[in-house]
Amino acid sequence: MIQIYLTVGVSLVALAVAALFAYQVLQADRGTPKMQEVSEAIKEGAEAFIRRQYSTIAMLAVVVAILIFAVYFIVGDTSYAWHTALAFIFGAFLSGLAGIIGMWIAVRANLRSAAAARINAGKAVVLALRGGAVSGLTIVALSLLGVSIIFTAFGSDPLETPFLIVGFGFGASFIALFAQLGGGIYTKAADVGADLVGKVEAGIPEDDPRNPAVIADLVGDNVGDCAGRGADLFESTAAENIGAMILGVALFPVFGINGVLFPLVARAFGLIAAIIGIFVVTESSANTGSPMGALNRGYYVTSILAAIFFYVAVWWLLDNNIWFFYAGLVGILLSLAFVYITLYYTDYGHRPVDSIVNASKTGPATNIISGIAVGFETTAVPAIAIGIALLASYWCGLQSGISVETPFGVLSGGLYGTAIATMGMLATAAYILAMDTFGPIVDNAGGIVEMSGESEEAEKRIARLDAAGNTTKALTKGYAVGSAALSAFLLFSAYMDQVANITGQAFAVVNLASVPVFVGALLGAMLVFLFSALAIRAVGETAQYVIQDVRRQFKDPVILAGTVKPDYASCVDITTKGALRNMVLPGALAVAFPIFVGFVLKYEAMAAFLMVATITGVLLALVLNNGGGAWDNAKKFIETGQFGGKGSEAHKAAVVGDTVGDPFKDTAGPSLHVLVKLLATTTLVLAALYI
Amino acid sequence: MIQIYLTVGVSLVALAVAALFAYQVLQADRGTPKMQEVSEAIKEGAEAFIRRQYSTIAMLAVVVAILIFAVYFIVGDTSYAWHTALAFIFGAFLSGLAGIIGMWIAVRANLRSAAAARINAGKAVVLALRGGAVSGLTIVALSLLGVSIIFTAFGSDPLETPFLIVGFGFGASFIALFAQLGGGIYTKAADVGADLVGKVEAGIPEDDPRNPAVIADLVGDNVGDCAGRGADLFESTAAENIGAMILGVALFPVFGINGVLFPLVARAFGLIAAIIGIFVVTESSANTGSPMGALNRGYYVTSILAAIFFYVAVWWLLDNNIWFFYAGLVGILLSLAFVYITLYYTDYGHRPVDSIVNASKTGPATNIISGIAVGFETTAVPAIAIGIALLASYWCGLQSGISVETPFGVLSGGLYGTAIATMGMLATAAYILAMDTFGPIVDNAGGIVEMSGESEEAEKRIARLDAAGNTTKALTKGYAVGSAALSAFLLFSAYMDQVANITGQAFAVVNLASVPVFVGALLGAMLVFLFSALAIRAVGETAQYVIQDVRRQFKDPVILAGTVKPDYASCVDITTKGALRNMVLPGALAVAFPIFVGFVLKYEAMAAFLMVATITGVLLALVLNNGGGAWDNAKKFIETGQFGGKGSEAHKAAVVGDTVGDPFKDTAGPSLHVLVKLLATTTLVLAALYI
Question: Chain A: residue nearest B514 by CA?
Answer without folding.
Answer: A509
